[in-house]
Amino acid sequence: MSFLADLLNTVFERRYRGASEPDHQGRSIIELCSDLLSSSGEVSGMVLARHILDSYRAMNIDEKRAFFGYLTDFLGIVPDKVNSALADYTADPSKANYQRFMAVAEPRRQELARRLNQVPGATKQLVEMRKDLLQLTREHPELAVVDLDLRHLFASWFNRGFLVLRPINWESPADILDKIIVYEAVHAIHSWDDLRGRLQPADRRCFGFFHPAMPDEPLIFVEVALTQGIPGSVQGLLADERDNIAAEDADTAVFYSISNCQAGLAGISFGNSLIKQVVADLSRELPNLKTFVTLSPIPGLNRWLTETDKQSDPSDEEQIRKTAAHYLLNAKRANGAPYDPVARFHLGNGALVHAVHARADLSDNGLAQSSGAMVNYLYDLPLISQNHEQFATAQAVVASPEVTALSTAAEQQDT
Amino acid sequence: MSFLADLLNTVFERRYRGASEPDHQGRSIIELCSDLLSSSGEVSGMVLARHILDSYRAMNIDEKRAFFGYLTDFLGIVPDKVNSALADYTADPSKANYQRFMAVAEPRRQELARRLNQVPGATKQLVEMRKDLLQLTREHPELAVVDLDLRHLFASWFNRGFLVLRPINWESPADILDKIIVYEAVHAIHSWDDLRGRLQPADRRCFGFFHPAMPDEPLIFVEVALTQGIPGSVQGLLADERDNIAAEDADTAVFYSISNCQAGLAGISFGNSLIKQVVADLSRELPNLKTFVTLSPIPGLNRWLTETDKQSDPSDEEQIRKTAAHYLLNAKRANGAPYDPVARFHLGNGALVHAVHARADLSDNGLAQSSGAMVNYLYDLPLISQNHEQFATAQAVVASPEVTALSTAAEQQDT
Amino acid sequence: MSFLADLLNTVFERRYRGASEPDHQGRSIIELCSDLLSSSGEVSGMVLARHILDSYRAMNIDEKRAFFGYLTDFLGIVPDKVNSALADYTADPSKANYQRFMAVAEPRRQELARRLNQVPGATKQLVEMRKDLLQLTREHPELAVVDLDLRHLFASWFNRGFLVLRPINWESPADILDKIIVYEAVHAIHSWDDLRGRLQPADRRCFGFFHPAMPDEPLIFVEVALTQGIPGSVQGLLADERDNIAAEDADTAVFYSISNCQAGLAGISFGNSLIKQVVADLSRELPNLKTFVTLSPIPGLNRWLTETDKQSDPSDEEQIRKTAAHYLLNAKRANGAPYDPVARFHLGNGALVHAVHARADLSDNGLAQSSGAMVNYLYDLPLISQNHEQFATAQAVVASPEVTALSTAAEQQDT
Amino acid sequence: MSFLADLLNTVFERRYRGASEPDHQGRSIIELCSDLLSSSGEVSGMVLARHILDSYRAMNIDEKRAFFGYLTDFLGIVPDKVNSALADYTADPSKANYQRFMAVAEPRRQELARRLNQVPGATKQLVEMRKDLLQLTREHPELAVVDLDLRHLFASWFNRGFLVLRPINWESPADILDKIIVYEAVHAIHSWDDLRGRLQPADRRCFGFFHPAMPDEPLIFVEVALTQGIPGSVQGLLADERDNIAAEDADTAVFYSISNCQAGLAGISFGNSLIKQVVADLSRELPNLKTFVTLSPIPGLNRWLTETDKQSDPSDEEQIRKTAAHYLLNAKRANGAPYDPVARFHLGNGALVHAVHARADLSDNGLAQSSGAMVNYLYDLPLISQNHEQFATAQAVVASPEVTALSTAAEQQDT
């Protein structure tokens, strides 16, 4: 071996240590990936894929970093090849030239992911893999290109047409309910009894999206309360001793918690489809429902107040409502979108800001993020497309007269 | 409007007539596709997607051609943009530059297909769409680039990890069995009684791959006979009056018919995985099974004899066996692969040529294509990887001594 | 052994030959039944029960007769014991005395049937057993007491609360559809294509009752056509080339065929519950349905004309309608119930005679039994209870004015 | 109305107060029952049955007592009628006479229960009804005859052939698991985490019998631990921090808890069938299992010691083992059966007393009932029938040499 090769080898091994070390069968994960990509695939492919997934699972975080480094450096696109194929295609846009272009314009790590995905259960592991990757990219931003590829693939695999909406209730399998407890991100579920209180009563519903390849893993779920009138606090909704009503007697469906479950599917949006589907299904089942509304946190309020050096007296309830209204209608990110992430989500879906409430979430988290304030976003079916359009084209925030008045009052105080 | 614009418009309308005409809602499918691609998507996307799919379904073949022409000409890659993005990425391989490259290196028609696929049931329609397209490309080869994109997407969507193997038996839904009758491509099923004879007896099995988004459409299926010893004719296997045996008494599983069901999934290979999975499942269920073998047609035999000006006396059974053996071992395509398509499939899977039989398929089709000869390909579990490797690397055809001897005898006659 | 015992033995063996002969394990079915009844049961009971059921299945008709003879003669009630237990209970109606009475007032063959029923799949076999028995009782009326016991048990086991209503459609398992073809008793199904025509179109429905212990055996099923208006002939309903309508566009549900499937469940009525359940389910699914009506054969018409020496010109359609109306309203059995069995069923359910049609069933069977005439029985929901009550108490036949007028016209002709 | 009738009425109303009072629709439950029994039934029967069940559910305990009093006094057998029918049958054992006898020898309350059972969900309510009744019979023993009838019916309805064995695991519906927590009668389940520890690990199993008419209600369930060797304490089995093993590595299946769930099914034995079925299913799934054994409480030990004025030093472990062994082998009820109810159950099933352990159940309950002692009953497959036979005929208790020796040692101490 030449000196140069030797040197390169040494560098390689340092950089990809962990990914280049042979396992008990004498093959490193890098070699296995190379085998999998070069195999005409199907006969030995599944064995190789399983081997790689098993190896990955056994890796520590440094080894994983090395593995993703390999994907970044060696299984990306090769600009020269792309250039050359593109030139050929430009000169003669034939099928063969297009095929050659396609082959080189897509990085090989995408094909690797597809080949890994042959193994039963692989989809879930690939989603876990991206979860690791997203964590690693914070300190190793050069790995982000791999994430773009995985995200691209997952957006295709987790396309709405492949998802299944399933009710989640007290008859659901315990292993799925277990995950609901863990994944609930808005109003923590403290016990199985707490969970039962959100699933079993006649005036409660929960729905989630599932993917057939990960049937026991919810992707996203929404908790719904069926009420008479629009509620102004989550304490009332989740009170232990509250009186249930019959589902048929409700006129309002309140989406009071929406949680994404899979960190490895970050950036692949399901929430919009979920809400629309649930609205459609509930309307059909319960024709008395007239109002579809959220009871949502305002997670960015206090952070924004701090950042903008504004004051707000947490004991003045009316003041908090004004401040919150003002924030929701006027606080923006640099790109003009609403500052508040939950506002971005619902306004982007075509909802409007319907009402704000003080002392609506008195949990530690609720007090810390918004001094207890919450907001109802209203899904007014006939207006959704129009709201969405205004928001998408002009970033216009639609609000009820009441909220607009509150916001105006806040602005007049400021001046 | 300028004269030029007017002219272009006229040309456009001629070329894309059918795709550019407004429907009863005043929008052409081209406009709808454009809307769907430009929409931030989710709110109105599903309505648009459904509209497009409905419009497509109502089109005649000329309109479909125009639609695919639009996809070819307007929703492909734009070389200039790719060039520019690639240059940026080469200069600075940042995440942002990579993302921009990805966005332009993939033609927009791929994104269109993904957005169409939001609608429940869309997957099946997209598969149907590709079936139409494949038919049209014969006369309109310029459309083939669209097919490459659909095939690329489908290979990802119909990845082995997403497929479900299901037994198909006399308890299966009638609508699926109906399709088995239609899709059987090797030994036609003449009636429901004929079908019952292949599904209900204890010594018969059938398995198919299904995709969760098309649950009532088999993708591929294989029919299996459980026998004592390796059978030498399909008449014996399918005889009405044959004696059944108990499944536990069988030592051999015979794959006597494999049929791809979806013309729109042409080129996406399932057969290999199917056979391997069925071998694994049957081995576990019936430990007495020792031999896994096909009873396969030799569809190219007589065509090859004609093409090579060879003669064969159809009444000389021994001669037919020699000729068939010689053909299977030596007849090649220009690229060195076996001439016979079924041979290519099974040898590529790692099977070997085990035996040839005369008077094994006396149907009109069997007599026409191979003078009634058939072949057993043997899936010898310990040898599969090795056979496959030899075939993949050196296109070496592995055969039993008996078949090799027959082939040699044929060659000696020739000289 | 004494001469008498010997003689008795001989007689016994002659009478119960077949039931008293040892099988290959050296036990006769009589001994096995005795063992099963005397066993404290559970440990060896299931083995014994299976053994008995297997032995029964292998019997020829003479052996079965002997077996039922044994059940008749040896496993019935013993009047002396009943008398004695009843006297004790009358003297002291204690729990213990009641229990003793219960034990002897029920024949041991009922307990035998319950113990046989421990075995998975036994229920179906016991139903088959009663089918055999019903056939044998025609020539051996002394066996009818055994039938009364089985019927009593089956009425309890096949209680409405244990039955499951299931739609039968083109997605149903083929083995169940196979049975629908066989069991259809009103308008024969000639082929799978014929069956498909009754199940697959959007304006056709079929429903059956199933029992969880016999999940692949329909007990009774009804075929329904969704129509606009009330149809007057079965040819129209079953025509191959008819135009389908959307289910939502129908205003009428026509029950055009009801078939009992299990001869062994004769006398256990399901039809009434079935129709009521189907009316309820269809009303909920399709709120546009306003009329629930049958299109029924008149199986007893021509037989009754012959028996009563009446004439009817089969070519005079108006005359046939009058005759049929008269028959339906006036022809009675000795006990005052309608002569026509189908009339008895529907009138007993609370339906009324709505219309009669000539040339409504031109099949050989239809012409033979009623010169092609058919009748609509109307299930007029608000009137069902009242109709039923009038029929149950006064055997009053309710009919529409039109049918009443036809009947009156027929009577005026007669005089 | 005559004075007498009036008097009777008064008495009647006093005795059946609650059952004879009209409800809001003006009918008492007694009148409704009478209607249901006299109706030819099917048309209005289901409405009546539902009405009765609803009325019953709304009753307080006094009203329920009145209702059962009515069933006792008015819907029992009528001796005169039975006598007369029996006399006719004895004189002429015809079918008609037998049918008449059957009709009067069965009390009408049995038919009432069958007619109530038409309503979906009624079976569960009837089981609840018997639960109430069993409670009432303690103070009102005259009602016990009604219980005998319900028990007779339930034994037929809950026949082994109608039951379904289902695994209960962490994928089971939460509402069923909820009931497992409630119904566990041997070793209390303290939380969902405790439950998870008994269901989720690879070396744990749970199985229950279900009836199709009560699909979300377990009838009985057994918890199983898969172990290496026979465990001697329940603390070890249920320890939080124990090491799990792979199911394939286990050689022993330990039935450590069997709980009947339905008080209303008391006296209808499922346990024996359950254990046998589970042994069969586990043997098939896990061929390495060689030993099937219980780890059972000895609930009667300390009570018996007290009753017989025996002493036992709870701190002397060896002494406890001797005492327990002696008790299990020698303590008898008046009728000769074992004094210990759990011993009766397992010995009756054909198990043998395999080992006794001190300090095996240190829960409060375990210490109170048996000073912490437990016992293994061994299900030795080849010996089960023989053990059962010896026990059933001679009440012989089979034990291992070790336990016999312990018992002998105890007896020698006594003398």
From TrEMBL, chains A, B, C, D:
Pfam families in UniProt: MCD, MCD_N
Sequence ranges assigned to domain Malonyl-CoA decarboxylase N-terminal in this UniProt record: 80-158
Highest taxon, organism lineage: Bacteria
Domain Malonyl-CoA decarboxylase C-terminal, first and last residues per copy: 161-314, 317-380
Protein's UniProt name: Decarboxylase
